[in-house]
Amino acid sequence: MMRLDYGVLSWTYELSSCQVEFRTQPHASVLELLYELKRNIVLGEYVARLTGCMLEPNEVMPESGFPLDHFPDTRYLYIVEYLNRVQLSAAMRVAGTHVHYGCKDPKHALRVYNALRKESPKFIEMGDFSGGERLRLYGLVAGDMVPPEYKSLAEFDAAAKQYKFDKNLSNCWHLVRITKHGTVEVRAFGNTSDIGVIDSWVSTVKRIGDSA
Fold first, then answer.
1. What pLDDT score was predicted for residue 75?
2. Strand partners, 177
3. If we measure between CA atoms, which residue out of 78, 104, 97, 57 comes closest to residue 168?
């Protein structure tokens, strides 16, 4: 029963009412992360069936007939007000796999960030299952997705203030970003239920982060 409760709590809402998100716990081992993911995919599929639904790892949903109903989270209410209809549709119809690398301190985070940002074209190639459509739509919302180089923490802080994500790092929508959780997040990968593919993504990010 404890395992069931833990898994249910790891599933959460997303901007679109048609989506759910699964968040793993932090892991030092890729194998432990994949074990948690496998176990909770099964649990998620079971709960979906109980509610008459199905889990589908779609990277891009078709525009025609797609509802724009959103989950009533405070941040999402702001996003819905901020985006125009085309952008909102684009934001709701895409899904991806985000990989976080945990860092020791801000200086370490900056080194990891700069190491990972260099590899963003490789991550895009590895993670594309929609012929570039997911990132095209994401770009309608995010604007400039390319993560810039920061030569110092002071340069990062100045950019955060200039582009207005200093008070909320989640407002930075680059494909690689430093987060409030003490991690560097890679957002370039698409969506899949293939555990082997996810293994390759996570292992690649870990290898690059470990060498930074």
1. 87
2. 185
3. 78
